[in-house]
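User: Reviewer 2 asked us to show a designed sequence for the structure in our supplementary figure. I'm pasting the structure tokens here. Could you produce the per-position amino acids so we can include them in the response letter?
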């Protein structure tokens, strides 16, 4: 494991400890391209393709989208333009410039998004990629562009700072991109110096019966566990991880190296600080904002809680 990642993992028995104040100062950015799911409404406006109603309501019209192939995301969605080799080369340079801007902006961690049906995933998955050139057909060819861009990210990103790649570990059940494909992809990512694989799933429109059964706590953790063990590479576990003890158990049992939360933090932005307390960190060094953390420390001193 890279030395700069070791401080995030907890493997030993639980004991009172101080949270590392440096962890409060890490900023991360995810670099993504919408691909064939672009030119769409904001999720809270429906998430459908932009059309005449959106032009009238908000002055926001559709634009030409691009992807690995001309396969629409779903019925009623526009067909994307299949990227040419020349456009792919220009796209690669766009990604390079994005990585450089991210570092210039002061981010400490970077992640390349290769999941959820967006552009990079549309190259990986045979459900969205029907090309017959060097970027389509075999798994090796379908991995070519995401690996090319990941290698540029690692080249542009400082060696002492983490670089992650987010993947859909599987498209679904017995269809499309598989966990075996993800293991092969992660093996190549490890070889070019990517530090961690962020193990999500899904993002393709699938026939009934092929969709991954989800919405149970930790439903994607087995993907992170298998990739970590078979590739020998740190992974990030995601997906309905809500309880501190469960999150700690995933790390303690070696099923992943990091835990990532999304909607749980929207529901409870104080989750990290509360979890630090629940797992025995010294309250003086938890990540409560100073503006009100000082009063909570005073309450602890006065009331013992």
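Assistant: Here is a per-position design you can include in the supplement:
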């Amino acid at each position: 494991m890279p030395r700069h990642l070791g401080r995030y993992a907890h493997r030993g028995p639980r004991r009172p400890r101080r949270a590392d104040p440096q962890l409060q100062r890490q900023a991360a950015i995810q670099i993504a391209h919408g691909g064939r799911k672009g030119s769409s409404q904001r999720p809270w406006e429906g998430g459908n393709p932009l059309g005449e109603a959106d032009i009238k309501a908000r002055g926001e019209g559709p634009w030409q989208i691009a992807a690995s192939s001309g396969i629409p995301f779903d019925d009623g969605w526009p067909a994307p333009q299949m990227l040419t080799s020349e456009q792919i080369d220009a796209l690669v340079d766009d990604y390079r410039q994005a990585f450089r801007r991210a570092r210039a902006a002061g981010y400490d961690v970077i992640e390349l998004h290769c999941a959820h049906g967006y552009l990079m995933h549309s190259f990986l998955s045979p459900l969205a990629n029907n090309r017959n050139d060097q970027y389509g057909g075999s798994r090796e060819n379908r991995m070519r562009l995401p690996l090319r861009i990941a290698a540029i990210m690692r080249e542009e990103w400082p060696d002492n700072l983490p670089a992650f790649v987010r993947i859909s570990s599987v498209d679904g059940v017995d269809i499309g991109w598989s966990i075996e494909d993800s293991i092969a992809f992660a093996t190549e990512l490890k070889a070019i110096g990517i530090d961690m694989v962020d193990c999500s799933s899904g993002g393709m429109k699938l026939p009934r019966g092929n969709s991954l059964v989800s919405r149970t706590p930790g439903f994607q953790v087995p993907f992170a566990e298998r990739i970590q063990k078979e590739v020998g590479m740190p992974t990030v576990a995601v997906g309905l991880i809500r309880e501190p003890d469960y999150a700690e158990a995933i790390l303690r049992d070696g099923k992943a190296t990091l835990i990532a939360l999304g909607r749980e933090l929207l529901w409870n932005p104080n989750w990290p600080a509360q979890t630090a307390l629940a797992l025995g960190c010294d309250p003086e060094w938890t990540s409560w904002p100073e503006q009100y953390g000082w009063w909570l420390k005073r309450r602890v001193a006065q009331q013992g809680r």
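For the response letter, you might also mention the following. The radius of gyration is 21 Å. Residues 85-104 form the longest helix (20 residues).
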